[in-house]
Amino acid sequence: MKRVSLSIFMSLLLACMLQPAFAQMASKKPVGDAVYAVYKEKGIDKALEEYQTLKKKKAADYTFDEQQLNAIGYKLMNTDNDMAAAKKVFWLNMQEYPSAVNPKDSYADVLVRMGEKDEARTYYKAAIEEFEKKNDFERNVSRNAKSKLALLDKKHQTFTFLTGSWAMEGIYWNEQNKEQKDSGDVTFSFANDMVMIVEMKQHARANSDIPGSVWVITYNAQRDVYETAWVDPSQRGLQPSVLTPQAAEGNKQIYLEEFTEDDTRYVLRHEIIPQGNTVQWTMFESKNGQDFRKMYQMDMSRQELSKN
């Protein structure tokens, strides 16, 4: 009984001690509301002067954190359509919280809206560099920054130059270097902004019931790779792989594709050379770390749309 009474007494004592602290927190006003009110009446410069005044003289009366200025910035962007004012707010937020991820990401957002894309890249990258040091919320902001940077750099549109229908002439070399020719039609299309569908129908199958092969490609901004799935109904269904961009050589685009099949590790080197209405696509194969050998080459010619 004494133990229970002591427990109740300690709980009441703790509640009494915490009550003033909770009351103080509840009584604090959001500094963002005060700053935004001054903006609506006197403009952004006076509003930011008010922020500094409140911080200096009435910090105990207001809540100050990075979310206060961040919220104002997005309100100026999305409600007031005042990009110049939002830029000043986000800039101040970066100065107030120099090691935070969110202010850098937000500053990059307003730069994109203002058309200053090169500078935006700088701040998206700065947000990403803070990634490893931060908590789960800021890690999520960093992931968003990677996605927005990828969209800004149009990495999801890398293959748009292939959109359309192509006539294909191909040569395949087996491991004994014997060649076999084929031909067909290849169509590149986007299911949405992020997913490309490649459909290939070989002429040898034109009169068969076997459908063509399908290759699905989408960009993963977090890993800076293209994730793909190859579907060949005549074989084993779905074959996932990862396609990693390499440094280009002139107008030659280069990608390394990696996948495992039957305990064999494959790496395919894709070399794509666009030349007007033609594209040469060559693939080199490496198995289990062996040297690359030339495996397949497609020469594609764009097909003109029929006129009705």
From TrEMBL:
Species whose genome carries this gene: Cesiribacter andamanensis AMV16
Keywords, sorted A to Z: Signal
Signal peptide: 1-23
Stated name of the protein: Uncharacterized protein
